[in-house]
User: Which sequence fits this backbone?
């Protein structure tokens, strides 16, 4: 079986760390590199957490690259209130023994896209800054991606604001560049992820007597504490892991071809993803999924990791 070449752009983040661990054990992907970006926490922390994910999953050979420390033209946002200062929850603080490779993130994406025309997939689990820089700096690559799958946005709801999802509103200008680039974009946003609530009781199914088997449940317990205190919900939604599952089980996701734009107005709608009717589609939008199958797949994948 020919492996699917994949670059992951991420800002770990609890749900990013879980998604990375799942993907690092998938035999059907060749992960060419992990590009870290400021998002859930600052760049130095996201780099550390990506390096740690590679170490603990036995994949130290995968290049980890420090991407953008801030959005294209806005101050950086963080979600430390959700992911803790370490990015791995309030009770977890771990440090990698390695450093990121000194490579240019946008050039790395462009080089891989040229080398693998029509084959390279990009999975974006954070703000789209580095993908946008690559597309803007090297416009010839726009038609060469197999896909750019984005965990971000939402047609009917937001989470960072009333209207906007965190990854998109963190760098809306970058999102607008990517969505309107002509590249094949797949949006796995809140319409698909928000219904996938995993009951808190199921965290115990992801525990084992191993380093990751202790670390992942501890992170998820902290994550569930946030859901309890902020939303009054006894469960959690592992957004980035849901998006990762869409790569190997796309048939579980209900999609529509739509023309999606990003709101850039300086008001409450900043970062909102919205559909323009009667326009040529520029995006495959996930509008829902089989929540039971997706949640079971996440737990099964974590069990295989630990």
Assistant:
């Amino acid at each position: 079986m020919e492996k699917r070449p994949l670059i992951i752009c991420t800002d770990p983040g609890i749900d990013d760390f879980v998604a990375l661990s799942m993907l690092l054990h998938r035999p059907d992907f060749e992960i060419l590199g992990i590009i870290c970006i400021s998002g859930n926490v600052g760049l130095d922390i996201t780099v550390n957490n990506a390096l740690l994910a590679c170490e603990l999953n036995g994949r130290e050979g995968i290049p980890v690259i420090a991407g953008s420390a801030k959005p294209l033209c806005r101050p950086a946002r963080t979600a430390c209130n959700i992911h803790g200062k370490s990015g791995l929850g309030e009770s977890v603080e771990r440090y990698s023994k390695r450093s990121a490779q000194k490579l240019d993130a946008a050039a790395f994406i462009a080089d891989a896209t040229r080398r693998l025309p029509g084959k390279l997939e990009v999975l974006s689990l954070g703000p789209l800054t580095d993908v946008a820089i690559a597309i803007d700096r090297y416009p010839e690559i726009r038609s060469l991606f197999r896909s750019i799958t984005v965990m971000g946005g939402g047609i009917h709801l937001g989470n960072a604001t009333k209207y906007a999802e965190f990854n998109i509103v963190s760098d809306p200008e970058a999102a607008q560049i990517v969505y309107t680039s002509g590249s094949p974009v797949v949006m796995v946003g809140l319409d698909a992820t928000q219904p996938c609530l995993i009951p808190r009781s199921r965290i115990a199914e992801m525990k084992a007597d191993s380093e990751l088997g202790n670390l992942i449940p501890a992170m998820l317990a902290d994550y569930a504490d946030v859901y309890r205190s902020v939303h009054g919900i006894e469960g959690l939604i592992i957004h980035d892991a849901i998006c990762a599952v869409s790569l190997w089980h796309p048939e579980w996701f209900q999609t529509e071809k739509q023309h999606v734009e990003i709101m850039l107005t300086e008001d409450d709608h900043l970062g909102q993803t919205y559909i323009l009717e009667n326009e040529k589609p520029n995006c495959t939008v996930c509008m829902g999924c089989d929540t039971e199958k997706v949640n079971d797949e996440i737990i099964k994948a974590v069990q295989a990791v630990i």
The mean pLDDT is 97. The longest strand covers residues 29-36. The first helix runs from residue 14 to 24. The radius of gyration is 18 Å.
